[in-house]
Amino acid sequence: MASDVSIVRRKALHRVIAGLFLLFIGLLWLGAELGLIRLTPALACSVFFVGMGLALLVIGFVEMKQR
């Protein structure tokens, strides 16, 4: 039973790390495109990466809190 919790916690931690990585990439991309006023494909991609990173962070933290 304890090993199952440890595996789930490790998977949740991997999701949190992946979320932080995607968030970092998205924020770097957003910073590079910050001077633009209109929505470009690069700006749309940065918003996508930030959103995916935040989603993975929330999923990982919720899974860690549940176990």
Describe the fold and architecture:
85% of the residues lie in helices and 0% in strands. By secondary structure, it is mainly alpha-helical. It has one domain. α1 runs antiparallel to α2. It starts with a helix and ends with a helix. The model has no long low-confidence stretch (mean pLDDT 74).
Question: How would you describe this structure in keywords?
Answer:
single chain; 67 residues; mainly alpha; 2 helices
Could you give a quick summary of the protein structure above?
With 67 residues, this protein is an all-alpha fold.
- Terminus-to-terminus distance: 11 Å
Instruction: Count the DSSP helices.
Output: 2
What oligomeric arrangement do these chains adopt?
single chain
Q: Which regions have little confidence, pLDDT < 50, spanning 5+ residues?
A: none
Main β sheet profile: none
Q: Let me know the number of strands.
A: 0
- Based on CA inertia axes, which overall geometry fits? elongated
Q: H/E series, N to C?
A: HH
Q: What's the Cα radius of gyration?
A: 15 Å
Count of the separate structural domains? 1
Structural class: mainly alpha
**Helix proportion of residues, in percent?**
over 70%
How do the strands and helices of this protein lay out in sequence?
Blueprint: H1 2-32, H2 41-66
